[in-house]
Amino acid sequence: MNVAILGTGYVGLTTGACLAYLGHQVYCVDADPKKIEALERGEMPFFEPHLADVVADAKENLRFTTEYAQAIPAAQVIFIAVGTPPGPGGAPDLRYLEAAARGIGEYLGPHFTVIVNKSTVPIGSGNWVDSLVRDAFQKRGGSRAGGSFAVASNPEFLREGSALGDTLYPDRVVVGADEEPTAEVLYTLYRPILEQTFTAPAYLPRPEAIEAAPLISTDLASAELIKYAANAFLSLKISYINEIGLLAEKVGADIAQVAKGMGLDARIGTRFLQAGIGWGGSCFGKDTAALVATAAEYGLHMPIVMAAREVNKKQRERVVDKLLGELKILKGRTIGLLGLAFKPNTDDLRDAPAVDIAKRLIERGARVKAHDPVAMDRFRQEHSNCEVLLCASAEEVAEGCDALVLVTEWPEYRELDWESLAKSMRSAFVLDGRLVLDRTRLSRAGFRVSGLAG
Ligand SMILES: NC(=O)c1ccc[n+]([C@@H]2O[C@H](COP(=O)([O-])OP(=O)(O)OC[C@H]3O[C@@H](n4cnc5c(N)ncnc54)[C@H](O)[C@@H]3O)[C@@H](O)[C@H]2O)c1
Question: Which domains does the chain have, with CATH numbers?
């Protein structure tokens, strides 16, 4: 099928590359000419494992442009995958969505086209996009009845760091459409994924457990709500274990054992149950805020979701409190941060706890050094006014530090030569913000170790 994807960010580029890999003809469109120029040179605009491989494998079916006029007219399916960042008051800023919808209306072709909201958008956005497209279509002289198009919702559940695997081998595909023929187009598009009939790339083998991907076929509003409800649930699972962690510390319980004992109950599950610094990234904060804002429009409160947000915010403050408790004075101290990205295997710094923690420490007069395996270039570009001393290695961070904080659980940080790190520090204290370090080994190396929950 002919597909256009608007927005070549984490979601749009991953979707475009995977659909092209499956054999569809894909045009990826972005408003940012620098991104498109880089993609045309074969450079990825962000770090995501295997993205460059899939883009290279699919290059015969994949084109890049900044021009809607090139991509839209022939498209049978148009994905909107533009950003929906948080706006003032919690509701998302929909200006990019609006521009994309109007742009589609201006160039819509004469055949039946399915327009798909893949961006995370508030409930009711399907109808709004429909009216914006129709408006723009009529303004350019299209018939009163409007072009032959329908809007569907296909929320995205990929995780940065495993985006390609999540797209090719999803837990489920959700399609929201109010008319059956609209949904049919998306089943056809996704059939190789739904039925797992494509040849898996050698670098991304099909997990053994996967035979087919379940399809949830529903109405527009339900699909839109599924996305927010899922992200809010994951957020509150993390905040819940962090709240239990506070009590665990008081009563002398081991939060890692508590989480394991809870999580092995199949009704609960072990994932998203690691106590620590809490969530960051572009989605959980903005999506929980949007859910609360949507509920408020209907006169509803969402105390559980609001509490999850509050607990998460406090975890970042607790990092500073813990360091203060250990070092007594932060002024003039040197604190080393291991990890800047909001999670491993990405360079995404949106709402990254490390940035927040660094700013809080600097405000209190501490000097902050940091390392990240992939996110330091992005940090230089996006946070040039944040006075963090970036170091080429974890060893360089540790040198002369009063404390280290493990902020992002990159696997390589577990394997550091902790003995020599301890020797190079002014005081060998490590705050394991993700509960992943081997405490016995670190103690043997001469470290005092603490987590956020004891
Ligand atoms: N990043 C994730 O892990 C993730 C996961 C699931 C859902 N989502 C949702 O998907 C959407 C996109 O997220 P992202 O992280 O890929 O965003 P992003 O910021 O990485 O990418 C958005 C892209 O859209 C481009 N753009 C903006 N306006 C445009 C326009 N009018 N036409 C064409 N391109 C335009 C921007 O230049 C940018 O490259 C958001 O709604 C987000 O909530 C993100």
Answer: 2-218 (3.40.50.720), 228-307 (1.10.1040.10), 313-451 (3.40.50.720)
